């Protein structure tokens, strides 16, 4: 876990320099960004995030976290340990790493968050921070919300 947290911190520090505006694939409207990129989305910051989709997500957080498994097939690990067979786990004031894989799930978190997701879905980011969709775009998220779509 320490190794992953060090990698997350390195990624955060690497992006602490001024971030270029989102690529031409991004459409900006009143500080809301809809980005359709290829590959794995990364995001870090403080605020509220919501991920909805299929595939996998990994969050390093100091936050309140709730997970809803809509399909009933999600596998959830909390601090590297498989979670009980609960389709709607809630973690209050949680500090650590949560991993989710499944065909239809929603994850919400409020607090400090570093996120990596893969598969197909959307991530909604409210607060302050940065995001990157590998190959296609960079940007900052703000209090007015940023929506990031990611394909498989």
Describe this entry's structure for a reader.
There is one protein chain. Mean pLDDT is 76; it is low at 4-35. Strands 1, 2, 3, 4, 5, 6, 7 and 8 form an eight-stranded mixed sheet that branches. β6 (90-133) and β7 (137-141) form a beta hairpin. The protein starts with a helix and ends with a strand. The chain has one domain. The protein has 152 residues and is mostly beta strands. It contains one helix and eight strands, in the order αββββββββ.
Structure, briefly:
The chain is mostly beta strands and 152 residues long. Helix content is 9%, strand content 64%.
Low-pLDDT sequence parts: 4-35
**Percent strand:** over 45%
Describe the main β-sheet briefly. 8 strands, mixed
Helices, by number, come to 1
Total DSSP E strands? 8
């Amino acid at each position: 876990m320490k190794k992953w947290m060090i990698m997350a911190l390195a990624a955060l520090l690497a992006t602490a320099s001024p971030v270029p505006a989102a690529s031409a694939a991004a459409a900006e409207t009143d500080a809301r960004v809809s980005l359709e990129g290829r590959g794995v989305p990364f995001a870090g910051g403080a605020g509220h995030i919501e991920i909805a989709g299929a595939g996998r997500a990994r969050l390093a957080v100091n936050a309140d976290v709730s997970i809803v498994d809509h399909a009933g097939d999600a596998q959830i690990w909390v601090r590297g340990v498989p979670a009980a067979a609960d389709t709607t786990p809630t973690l209050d004031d949680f500090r650590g790493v949560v991993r989710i894989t499944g065909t239809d799930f929603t994850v919400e978190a409020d607090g400090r968050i570093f996120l990596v997701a893969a598969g197909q879905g959307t991530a909604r980011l409210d607060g302050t921070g940065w995001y990157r969709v590998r190959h296609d775009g960079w940007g900052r998220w703000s209090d007015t919300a940023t929506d990031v779509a990611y394909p498989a």
